[in-house]
Amino acid sequence: MAEPASAAIRHGLTWRVLEQQGAYVHVGRDDITNAYQGDTTVDQMLPILCLYKDGRAAPGGISFDYSNGWVQGALQLSAPITGSALTSQAQADGICASQLGAGWRMAEFHDGGGGWSYWGTGQLPTDTRFWVAINDQPANPWNSAGDPPPVDPQDPNFNQQTVQTGAGWKLVQTAGTLDDTGAAFNEQFYQVDGAAGLNASPLPQQLKDAIAADIAATPAGEAVSYSVSKTIADEVALSAMQGSPTQRLIDLSAQADSASMMASGNVSRMGILGCGDKDITKNKAFNWGSPINSNYNLGDANSGFTGNVTLSGTANVNATGEIQITLKRTGIWFVCVPYGVKFRYARVNGTAKIDQGATVSGSITYANPKAWEWQIAKPFLFSINFMAGPIPVHIGFNLPITAGFDKKGITATVTGSVTYSGRRMVSGYFDYNCTSSGCTGSQSLDTTDLGTQPVTASVSGRFQPSLYAQVAFRGYLYSDSFAYAQVGIRPYIMGDLWGFYGNNCGDADGDGTFETVDALTFDLDWQLKVTGQADTFITKEWRKDIYTSPRWHVQFWDLLGGAGSRAVTPMAVGPATVPAGAAQTYTAKMRSCWPYADNVNFSVDWGDGSAASAVSGPAATGVNASHTWAATGSPLLRVTALSDAHGRNLGKATQRTVTVNNAHVHLGLTWKLLGTNGSYSHVGIDSTSNPYQGDTNPATALPVLCLRQDGRAAPPGMTFDPYNNGWAKGEIRLTAPVQGLSLTSRAVADNLCASTFGSGFRMGEFHDGGGGWTWWAQGVISGASRFWVAINDQPANPWN
Question: Whole-prediction pTM value?
Answer without folding.
Answer: 0.63
